[in-house]
Structure formats: structure tokens, C-alpha cells
Amino acid sequence: MIYMLGAGWASSSSVRGLSLKDYQPVVISPRPYFVFTPLLASTAVGTLEPRTALESVRTIPGAEYWEAAVKSIDFEKKEVHCISGLQNWDPQKSFAVKYDKLGSSLKVIAVGAHTQTFNIPGVREHAYFLKETRDAIKIRRQILRCFEEASLPSTSTERQKQLLHFCIVGGGPTGVEFSAELHDLIHDDLARSFPSLMPFVNISLYDVAPRILSMFDSSLAEYASNHFARQRIEVHTLRTVTRVEEGVLHLKEEDPVKFGMLVWSTGLEMTPLIKELQGVKKDEKAGRIMTDGHLRVLQPAQNEDGVSKVVPDVYAIGDCAVIEGAELPSTAQVASQKGAWLRKRLNLIAKKGLLKNEASTSASKDAELEIGRGFQYHNILTLAYLGSWNAIAQRSEGHGIRGRFAWLLWRGAYMTKTISLRNKIRVPILCRLVLVRALTEQITANKGWLW
Ligand SMILES: Cc1cc2nc3c(=O)[nH]c(=O)nc-3n(C[C@H](O)[C@H](O)[C@H](O)COP(=O)(O)OP(=O)(O)OC[C@H]3O[C@@H](n4cnc5c(N)ncnc54)[C@H](O)[C@@H]3O)c2cc1C
Description:
NDH-2, 12 helices, six-stranded mixed beta sheet, flavoprotein, FAD/NAD(P)-binding domain, 32% helix, FAD/NAD-bd_sf, oxidoreductase
């Protein structure tokens, strides 16, 4: 038996392809589907339908699925305590899963993370987040609501300006891509329905850092800022949000800013489950579970030689975990590579008949048993969409591309990475419609294809 806690990027890639003759996977997650997060910004503005970003957990071959959230884990008793929304989160109906009954069952913690708010007052109440498909649907409704209210004859000019001011806090890839998609939606589609409102539209992106997209080379980040400036997306760096009220953003450096919609995307905060988890080592910076290079959860206690012991039978992968001494980005790329690596390791362990030994593992034991080196991350490409069929892509420091070709890579990556055949067909068709329109406009404007 192997219990996968979570049904996101990390869990999906570890469970798909797991040797079913050796393991019986059980996925425990409060939502019955996997979310293809890179498509969320497109679904929030209506370029793609929300269902193109979803895959049912039930489509994972050979996996059992329980729709429940893990409330706590007792490492000493080897128990996972769960509660289900299908039973109205009734504590009387919560259940415990013993994960080491026969000494051969394992557990993988892959519960992801929430959006960080730094406990800034008013953010949870008045901002929109972009983490789930339901968030994307809410955002789409609010954009349309702002335009519809602004178009009423009784709406004052001042109110129109407020309603059509869209603020985004967080200059990472998610905030940048959402700003770009929003710009496309407004200028390509809504401009036709609401031409008289266009002079009032304003998109502002705020970040506390001196520049946006800090994970990219400075030349690519500068290209993004210049591209945004040409599109009249205002980038405000070195800005600290102090408070949010309904329709008003308070900043330390300037006067209060009125908005119609505020989207918040400022990094990750651990879920209550991880925050309250006892008996595991966590990193000081973000409170993530620390693992060794073989993705095994570490105990806070150390051996006499100063090396942390592992928690028997437990792995942690994805945004909720970090490898001790190796700072990797919190991305789907890292999460899915860790999941795939773990799947191969587990299959190898089973193939070599070492499943019973897994509890007593250590790095030296692994070498002895020839089950491979630790996890190695390979950055395939870091991508960000900038709007108007422009993107930036970076493989490693100093190796980046930008413009239309990077956009093709960006769209191509998501076409090939979606899981089901249905979405493999649906996403390219919808994207091709966008591409045809892009090409037509390009030809009409008689511009070059590459930058
Ligand atoms: C809008 C957006 C766009 C992004 N774009 C990109 C991109 O282009 N490229 C990229 O590399 N990364 C991207 N990312 C980051 C990427 O999505 C995350 O790094 C990735 O989802 C992490 O995978 P995970 O499996 O750790 O967590 P998730 O994919 O978030 O999955 C966590 C799972 O755990 C479940 N869960 C939560 N709490 C519990 C609990 N208590 N018990 C049981 N289950 C629980 C959740 O329901 C979910 O199924 C993007 C993120 C967002 C929000």
C-alpha cells in the first residue's frame, strides 16, 4: 500500500506509472481532480475553458481515491487522520489510516502550499487569488462585473476609473502572466464590446522587489518590463502593501490606490497541516518539510555524527518540501521531476525485492543496495507569457530567448504536457484559434514574425 497525500503535480507524477503489481496506490485529497496550474491565467480570462486545466484523479490507472483532507499525521503511531468535505467536515466522521500495518506500506506527503499573504490586513477578505479553477472562475466573473457596472449610465466617471483599475500584487511569473492575459482580454475582446470605456482601463502590477521576474536574467526581466510599458501595464517596484480595504490598496510609499479588482500572488505559505506537523525537520525560511537528497523526510533529531535521521517510510515532495542544502524553485517542473524520480526509485526498490528494507534506509545503505544517486533537478525551460504573443524563456543563466518564438515554446510546452487525450486535443485547438488570429493581425500590420 502507498498513500499519496495530495493530487497535484508532485503526487500525479509519482503515482502514474507506479508498478501496480508491487504497490496499491491510494490518493487522499480534498479535491477530486488535478489542476494544470500553468493554464489557470488563461482560464481566468476565458482564453481556455476551466475544464481544460483539470484532470480527474479517477483517471489515474490502478489508483484508489478518497475525497478527504489530511488533518494531522502521527508519526509515532504511524497514523494519518482524515476528514471529508463530503461529510460536511464532521469531526465525528473523521477516520484514521494506519500506514505501517505490515511494515511495508509507505506514505508520500505532497499537499502543496497556499498563497502567502504575510498576514497583511484585508488581503484574504478583499483580494482574489489564483490557485484553483474556482479562483479563475471568480476572477473572470469579477472582470465582467467591473465592465458591466462601469457601462451603466448612472456610474460616475470616478467610479468608472476605480472599477476599471485592475491591480496585481506580485511580480513573479503568475502575477506577470495574469497581467498579460488580462491585457489581451481587455484589448482584444472587451474593447469591441465596451469601446467607450477603454480610456478608463488601467492595469497596475506591484512588487516589493526592485524588479519583476527575479528568477530570470536581468536582460529578460528588463525586456518584460519594457514590453509591459509599451502595453501600458504600469509596473510599480519597491512598493510595500500595508493594508487592503474593499476597493482600496494601501501602500507605504504612495497614496491609497482605488481598484475594481485586486489579484494577489506573492509566493507560498504552508498549509495548516504542514504548519502544525510535529516530529519532522522544517526549513526556517518557509516552514517546508526537509528531506534528504532521496526525498525522505528528516527528523529534527540528529545522530552522534550530526546527520539527521530519516522518518521511516515517509517521503515529501512538491511545494511543501525542500531538500536540505538544495534551494530549488517552487514550481511544477521541480514538483513533477521529484514525483517521477520517486516513482522510479520505488519501482526499483520493488524490483530488487528491497521493499521491506525501505524503512531502514540511509544514503550509504542506498549506495550499497545500488538504488541510485539522490534526486537531481534539470531545468528544462523557465517560461513566462508577456501578452500579445510575446514571452520569455530561459534554460540557464545567459541562455534566454524572447518574443514570438518564446511564445510558441510557451504554448507548445502546455500543449504537450497536458495529461489526457481530451485536453491534448482541446488545448491546441483553442490555442490554434488564438494563433490564427495572431498571424492574421501580424500579416495585416505587416510586421516581422520574430522580434
Ligand atoms: C496560476 C499558477 C501558475 C503556475 N504556473 C507554473 C508554470 O508555468 N510552471 C511551473 O513550473 N510552475 C507553475 N506554477 C507552480 C506550480 O503549480 C506548483 O509549484 C505546483 O503545483 C506544486 O505541486 P504540488 O504537487 O506540490 O502542489 P499542488 O499541485 O498545489 O497540489 C497539492 C495537492 O494537495 C492537496 N491537498 C492540500 N491540502 C491537503 C490536505 N490537508 N490533505 C490532502 N491533500 C491536500 C490539494 O488539493 C492538491 O491536490 C504555477 C502556479 C500557479 C498558482
